[in-house]
Amino acid sequence: MDNLFSESVERLFSQVATPVAIRAIEQGASTNAMWQELEQSGYLDALVPEAQDGAGLTLAQVFPMLLSAGKHAVPLPFAQTMLARAWLTAAGVVPPSGAITIAGLEASLLQNGAIQADTVPFGWVSQWVLADLGDYAALLPVADADSEHAGGYGSLCATLRWNEWPATAVKIPLGSPLSLPDLAVLAAAALASLMAGAADRVLALTLDYANQRSQFGKHIGKFQAVQSQISVMAERTWACRMAAQLACQGKAWAPQLLLAAVGKSRCSEAAAIIADIGHAVHGAIGVTQEYDLQLYTRRLREWRLCGGGETYWASRIGAQLLHHSDKSALAFICDELSAGSQ
What we know:
The chain has 342 residues and is α+β, with helices and mostly antiparallel strands. Helices cover 50% and strands 12% of the residues. It contains 11 helices and 10 strands. The strands form 3 sheets. It has a 4-stranded mixed β-sheet, with helices on one face. It is globular.
């Protein structure tokens, strides 16, 4: 099943999320055609139960799809929409059409009643934001918000502000009896998977360049100094993939807190190292707009900070360890931080 999903999703993304299409959307082109292709594929409802016309798959089963979305730097919230639709269905809310991004940590309810969401990933190209506002969650229409770009060149993040409650917004109670998973955990699992995919693409581009670029009569990949950098990069890349896969383990559609925390923390920690080595090996060409490397390294740096960085998620893991004071650190890892424990 892993190969089936990987191959079909790879074909889809390679056709619709080309570097040309990504650059166009970053410069303000319409996302309608690409979104229609993603919608018609049926993958966005993969985590929705079969009784609600979904595929009823688990998060572990759809991990290859999320990884592939990061590998192709899909400029739309494919992973977030997939998880948001499952979450909304579990909450008894019919998911709306259109792209949905998740603001797990970025959103807050201000004293004057306004809602502020800072640096929301894919906020610039989404129609809806699923936000955690403390006592309740809200599904908010982006069209009713004051929006501004957040981030550097080509960023798809946006800072959004709703000065009053939108007419089409949906308020969703949190806590029992629904026991819905934390939106921050959903966002962390999605971003970890996307970063692992982007890291894989950066490694592939770097290896290809090192095996083609010649200097002093031989390919630069033959130089020990370059080999050392690439080995560090490869180590971090595969650690990212393993951590992201761990974040998506479980027998249901929803990620688990500690596993998602490990995935996001580890991927965020490695993101800058992978991006830096990729650019170092590529040299001057690696920083040009025309070369595709920057499409993925920019996303690595952007996603690293979205949804909480490595320090935040490491602190969540540490807090859980302190809560289990009767366990040693090794016992805590074996019991709580392994896929088999879920």
